[in-house]
Design a protein that fits this description.
Distance between the termini: 99 Å
Number of strands: 15
Helix content: 40-55%
Largest sheet: 4 strands, antiparallel
Strand content: 5-15%
Radius of gyration: 41 Å
Length: about 650
């Protein structure tokens, strides 16, 4: 009976074994009395919960967890919210078909890695699991490490995976490079995943099923979770870092001894030796610049930098000064150093790290021997900003410089005032040789006159654009500039006496049997000397001068010519002439008569009507959406 019962529920037995494996895995990684929150995630990371370590067994029964976070956090699973470091090193090797170890049992692959660790003096991991497609190894400390150690943990992990020094002490040391090569050779054929080096990393729980391969995640070394051993982080760091802690202490002691010997020699010779300048980062001119900027950042604090909106700017200048001074480093290291000064209020260390990444890239290019062109010569790819620009962008005043004892970042002149963002942008445009708005406006007028001249010669918009090398939309924009100049507002009535000379001027130009509207317009726009004599306009409070009267006559003449062209082309377009730019005298006279009546209506209404000259077939098709009139009253739409 008992055997029948055991065989009747095989699924329940499998689920119990899987739950036991998960609880055993979690109890080793995150003991019940640990501090912080643990993140559990489900299939495809669709759901996640944050629970205390003592509540993990209860959460497993109610939440189908497949992944767990390596570390513990205060509130959210982010590097900035790290509470304790429960794993100081790890690796993820996915054995693909291209690997020489493909098809081997996970236990044998783990044994190969363990032997390689032993050969290179690297302590064995606490445990190795089979993830369904590869193997995961994790090193756990004897006691959880504080969150402040995460930068050193990341550096140790970087070198453990075979990373080498890019700059600074030891970057050209043959012994250091040989050690890096040996560590890198440990991973030959293992398809090491280099993208899992972040602190919020999660990995698969033992007892769960890998949905991609269908395999069950299990422990492959040691033989049981009870045999897991924890390691000393300092021993691991000495084995993988370029310099051990003992070697670093010996190097510092040697430097101090040399400094003391120089001081003793100077005292014996009766020379006064200047006390060494205490610097936090780098040496030389830009090292001093970085030190003074750090003084400014420490004085203002995170809140003052945020209120001044210079958090990112001052971090960029400090990192650039470190890079240019030869102090080396990378975005991660710089962000960790600047975090106490800048991080806070929606700015995280990760944001700062991403903001400083371009400086790191320029430094790597400079270390590779690359240069950039500057004027007639070359310079480093790392920017060495001038003190004037740094002072201006940070907004350092003389009072602040005197208060902090700044020397190189002391503003010159008694009336120094930092430029506003608009002034800074204008100065940058002038330095690049950009044209001012006035110059661009003059250029637009020249181009507009050129476009109109070509239009009067019979060229359409497409032909004009091809000749000038611009787009048709730009040609239309230039034409609209002149149109706005000649399409004016009228405030007084136009009498028959005033209109008659204008009509006569148009009639005088219509002597050919066949003319073009462009030449008709050209004949209407009379020079100032040929303007018709008009009676003075009557105004309630003032009398127009002779010059103003002549200008009014020219404006009305130009407006009349524009209206004439409008009605002429509109008539041709309605008749669907193929050669619409050629007209006869009768059609031109009809358009002139309609233009005279419309001009009188415009004067009476106090505003001009909507007129868009027909340049070509495309413009005629666009007449369905006329441009709105500039005045407040309702206009007459002429088309």
């Amino acid at each position: 009976m008992i055997g029948a019962g055991a065989g009747a529920h095989p699924r329940a037995s499998v689920e119990r074994d899987a739950l036991a494996a998960q609880i055993a895995h979690l109890s080793v990684l995150h003991p019940a009395r640990s501090r912080g929150l643990v993140t559990l995630m489900g299939y495809n990371f669709e759901q996640s919960i944050d629970v205390r370590p003592r509540d993990l067994p209860r959460a497993l029964r109610t939440f189908e967890a497949t992944h767990v976070s390596l570390q513990r956090f205060h509130d959210t699973r982010q590097g900035e919210g790290l509470a304790k470091i429960s794993a100081f090193a790890w690796f993820d090797c996915e054995i693909t078909e291209a690997s020489p170890f493909f098809g081997m049992p996970p236990e044998e692959i783990a044994g190969i890695l363990l032997s390689r660790f032993d050969e290179n003096g690297v302590p064995r991991p606490s445990h190795i699991t089979f993830s369904g497609r590869g193997i995961w190894g994790v090193w756990q400390p004897e006691r959880p490490l504080p969150a402040s150690a995460q930068r050193r943990v990341k550096r140790a992990l970087h070198h453990f995976w075979g990373g080498s020094l890019k700059s600074g002490r030891g970057s050209r040391d043959e012994a250091v490079q040989a050690k890096a090569d040996r560590l890198k050779a440990m991973w030959d054929g293992m398809d090491l995943d280099m993208a899992v080096g972040d602190m919020p990393r999660v990995y698969r729980l033992a007892g769960t099923r890998n949905e991609k391969s269908g395999e069950t995640v299990r422990l492959v070394w040691p033989s049981s979770w009870a045999e897991v051993e924890r390691q000393d982080f300092e021993v691991f760091a000495d084995a993988v870092m370029p310099f051990s802690r003992m070697e670093t202490e010996a190097y510092l002691a040697e430097c101090n001894a040399n400094r003391a010997a120089l001081a003793a020699q100077a005292a014996a010779e009766g020379r006064t030796q200047q006390a060494p300048r205490v610097t936090n980062h780098g040496t030389g001119f830009y090292g001093a610049i970085a030190d003074e900027l750090l003084k400014v950042a420490a004085h203002l604090g995170p809140q003052g930098l945020k209120d001044g909106r210079i958090r990112g700017r001052i971090a960029h200048h400090i990192a650039s000064a470190w890079a240019y001074s030869g102090a080396g480093g990378d975005a991660e290291e710089w962000a960790a150093k600047l975090a106490p000064y800048c991080v806070g209020y929606k700015l995280t260390e990760a944001n700062l790290r991403a903001y400083l990444r371009p400086v790191e890239k320029r430094l790597r290019r400079a270390e590779a021997g690359e240069t950039s062109t500057w004027g007639d010569g070359t310079r480093s790819t790392v920017y060495g900003y001038s003190t004037a620009r740094i002072i201006d962008e940070i907004g350092i005043t003389q009072a602040l410089a005197r208060e902090l004892g700044l020397v190189r970042l002391m503003p010159t002149g008694g009336d120094y005032r930092p430029m506003t963002p608009a002034e800074r942008a204008a100065k940058a445009r002038a330095a690049r040789g950009c044209q001012t708005k006035a110059e661009l406006a003059r250029l637009d007028q020249v181009m507009a006159q050129t476009c109109w001249k070509m239009a009067l010669e019979g060229l359409n918009v497409t032909e004009t654009a091809q000749v000038l090398g611009i787009t048709r939309a730009t040609v239309r924009r230039y034409i609209d500039i002149i149109e706005l100049d000649v399409s004016i507002e009228y405030t007084g009535p136009v009498t028959e006496t005033e209109i008659a000379p204008l009509a006569a001027a148009i009639d005088d130009t219509s002597t050919d049997e066949v003319v073009t509207p462009r030449h008709a317009t050209l004949g209407v726009v009379l020079p100032a000397s040929a303007a018709p004599t008009l009676p003075p306009a009557k105004a309630p409070n003032r009398r127009l001068s002779a010059k103003a009267e002549a200008r009014k006559a020219l404006e009305r003449t130009a407006r009349l010519a524009l209206l004439t062209e409008h009605f002429l082309v509109a008539d041709l377009s309605s008749r669907q002439y193929i050669e619409w730019h050629r007209v006869d005298v009768q059609q031109l006279e009809a358009a002139q008569a309609e233009a005279l009546r419309t001009l009188q209506w415009e004067v009476e209404d106090g505003c001009r009507h909507i007129v868009q000259p027909y340049r070509n077939a495309e413009v005629r098709a666009a007449m369905a959406n006329p441009r709105p009139a500039p005045c407040g009253s309702r206009p007459r739409v002429l088309h």
